[in-house]
Design brief:
single chain, alpha/beta, Polyamine Oxidase, Chain A, domain 2, 7-stranded mixed β-sheet, 16 strands, about 15% strand, globular
């Protein structure tokens, strides 16, 4: 069927990693594609800037990128030829305890397991099957619900991943192994007693063992810049400083893909949707938000545990019991005195981030959605707890509460960086219960943000799957599955 002439074949609204991925796949398949960004800089959560002092480069949102390195779609793109260079920390991630020791995620499964004492074999038994099978299950894990290409391989991941983090942690005997796993699972931004919270830990740990937890040299912005450079090199067009608030602002196109969450989608295109689809979008649930701090430092953070001084990421939360308790309190609307803190030390491995001899640090904790409480003191106390003298290193800082996080990126509703709760109720049916979660009820309109499967993270797979669906529906173009 011949399509009538339009300004563009496809328009993508929003230039986060999913919007960029969608635009690239559409352009790769011979379409004319326009990518529209409301800000003056592309990237969504992939942006970097001097937030504190001149010469100190900070990642505004995302910082460490195991999923970008492990993304089945990004792996197919020549991003290094477009300026992207990853730096690999000496240790992927470290998790300190009050006794001065720390456990780490690093290298092959056996390398991490060997440091876990009596839990060595339990760790291998849990992670090795997933790591071995990752190449064959990655597109299914990072995609919509469907019959898997390798059902037996997916069975083990599903058996473990759909369980709660606390139940899987019972595989271990030591506080060290339990704490390491629980800290990884806390990326799910839910109470760790909830089903499916184990999946976050399994994906992040498997990615670490296979691809590492890399840092983009020169800032997270470099990932967005490389994706955009490649997109333009194959004929794509980008328009910035154009904030879309209604469908009437868009040029004519056969299809429009929105890298936004249900709240904004309703505002822009709600009048095009069926009543039941609108009802589902209105019921979509957002989760905990984040409170973030960036520091300019006079030197590296003086962690007691040497492993933490060599790690790109440090999970600060101590034991399983402490992390579980404080995450539950946050979910229930409270603000823990000892919040779980996710900290990154990019300048230890990328000297371009700070002046010679100086450093940056990046950290956040979870808070109730929409919270405006200043958590700076609580976060700094947590770091000082495992790195006495940290506060003496601070030259300057910049904080962002959930309101400011959302003002910076409207996709982060109430500070929720995952685009909505990723629990069993919204794991595969985000943002609505449909045969394809990327289709809306209006022909030609799709959603490609982290509010679709597989959810949050810099992997571009939401955009890839949405664009693949639009290519088939609108242009009768069938894409071969990723290997």
């Amino acid at each position: 069927m011949k399509l009538e002439k339009r300004d563009f074949d496809a328009v993508v609204v929003g230039s986060g990693p999913n919007g960029l991925a969608a635009a690239i796949l559409l352009q790769q398949n011979g379409l004319s594609v326009l990518l529209i960004e409301g800000k003056d800089t592309i990237g969504g959560g992939l942006r970097s800037a001097e937030l504190t002092l001149p010469g100190y480069l900070h990642d505004i949102c995302s910082a460490i990128h195991p999923l970008a390195a492990a993304s089945p779609f990004f792996e197919t793109l020549p991003l290094s030829a477009h300026g992207l260079e990853y730096v690999y920390p000496g240790i992927n991630a470290a998790h300190p305890f009050d006794n001065g020791n720390a456990v780490i995620l690093n290298g092959a499964v056996n390398e991490t397991a060997a440091l876990l004492g009596v839990d060595q074999q339990s760790y291998v038994d849990l992670l090795q099957p997933i790591v071995n099978n990752w190449p064959s299950i990655a597109t299914d894990v990072l995609g919509p619900l469907r019959f898997p290409k390798h059902p037996i391989a997916m069975a083990w991941f599903g058996l473990m991943g759909l369980r709660s983090a606390t139940s899987v942690a019972k595989c271990f005997k030591t506080e060290e192994a339990k704490g390491l796993f629980t800290g990884m699972a806390a990326h799910s931004m839910q109470p760790l007693t909830k089903l499916s919270t184990a999946a976050a830990a399994l994906v992040l740990m498997s990615a670490g063992h296979l691809k590492g937890w890399p840092i983009p040299k020169g800032g997270s912005q470099k990932i967005a810049d490389a994706l955009a450079s490649y997109f333009v090199s194959i004929g794509g067009k980008i328009e910035t400083n154009t904030y879309i608030q209604s469908m009437s602002q868009l040029p004519s196109a056969h299809t429009v893909l929105f890298d936004i969450t249900p709240k904004q989608l309703l505002q822009i295109a709600g009048h095009r949707f069926s009543s039941i689809y609108k009802w589902q979008l209105q019921r979509y649930r957002y989760g905990m938000g984040v409170f973030k701090v960036d520091w300019a430092l006079d030197g590296p953070i003086p962690f007691i545990a040497n492993e933490c001084r060599e790690a790109g990421t440090v999970h600060i939360g101590n034991t399983l019991a402490e992390i579980v308790s404080n995450e539950q309190l946050t979910w229930d609307g409270g603000h823990p005195e000892k919040p779980f803190v996710l900290l990154a030390q990019q300048s230890l491995f990328d000297p371009s981030r700070a002046p010679l001899g100086k450093h940056t640090a990046w950290a956040y904790c979870h808070v109730p959605n929409g919270s405006t409480k200043d958590m700076t003191e609580a976060i700094e106390k947590q770091i000082e707890r495992f790195a006495p003298g940290f506060r003496d290193m601070i030259l300057a800082k910049r904080v962002m509460n959930t309101v400011q996080v959302e003002e910076y990126n409207p996709n982060y509703i109430g500070g929720d960086i995952n685009g909505g709760v990723i629990d069993l109720g919204q794991l595969f049916t985000r943002p609505a219960l449909r045969w394809s979660p990327y289709r809306t009820s209006a022909k030609g309109i799709y959603i490609c943000s982290s509010s679709t499967p597989p959810g949050g993270g810099v992997h571009g797979m939401c955009g890839y799957h949405a664009a693949k669906r639009a290519l088939k529906d609108i242009f009768s173009i069938h894409i071969k599955p990723l290997q």
